[in-house]
Amino acid sequence: MLGSFAEAEDAVQETWLRLNRTGVDGIENLGGWLTTVTARICLNMLRTRETRREEPLDTGTRTGTGDGVRIPDPVVSDPSGIDPEQQVLLADSVGLALLVVLESLSPAERVAFVLHDMFAVPFDEIAPLIERTSAATRQLASRARRRVQGQAPSPDPDPIRQREVVDAFFAASRDGAFDALVAVLHPDVVLRSDGGPERAGQTVVLNGAHTVASQAATYRRMAPFVRPALINGAAGAVVAANGIPLSVMAFTVSDGLIVAIDVIVDPDRLRTLDLSAALG
After folding, report:
1. Over 60: is that where the pLDDT of 153 sits?
2. Contact 232, 183 (CB under 8 A)
3. pTM above 0.70, yes or no
4. Hey, what domains does the chain have and what are their CATH numbers?
5. Other beta carbons within 10 Å of 74
6. By C-alpha distance, which of 233, 276, 279, 273 is closest to 73?
7. Which of 241, 236, 243, 224 is nearest to 71 (CA)?
8. Which pLDDT belongs to residue 216?
9. What is the Cα–Cα distance from 227 to 49, expressed in whole angstroms?
């Protein structure tokens, strides 16, 4: 809902405090109560972002600087040694590309879509939260769904195939093989790089296989420092030199081609992320 570990922890803590104040005796459906209260808290937090005039993520179609680009916090896991229970959890993970698109939705759209499409909450129960009618809530969720489906393609379910494609990307980058790099990229691939608010030159949105492949020289310099990782359950990488993280790279692979690359290069953000699973 929030795309931020810190804000998610705040929302859970606030829900817990409200439950302690209310008590469980008068609550007939505890699960429903928790979902409703947590959703309302998240909605207020999202609206506060808008009040502060924080720009939503620009998922536009241009090439060049992407003002306001912010990649949500990623979940980084070790690609080896995942037990069956963890595999099930990772399979249900929300991909980073989907979270990126959610950042572009209005607070009401985001709440309606997440609660209905991801948690199967009926529209009649969502409507009072966002102060809409049930019909209007259904329209909000439908509009959000169209945007998500149009901008966040479903990744290939096979993690081994995903890794093969990502490995081919880095191999082509390392060798400076432009044609091989283009071959693993979807013609309309989108690369989003979040350099943070203080580093406008590293905050970009690039579109198209040839445009993204033209950055091969940059990828080539990073190749020796690439460490495979699972990013929100999908094949990705942490780039680190001498134990210092330089970037987190999340790939969305669909039909054997890379359709999206989401990169965090903001050193301030990287210092706050738990990258121990990849760095060892």
Report:
1. yes
2. no
3. yes
4. 5-54+96-151 (no CATH), 159-279 (3.10.450.50)
5. 27
6. 273
7. 236
8. 72
9. 34
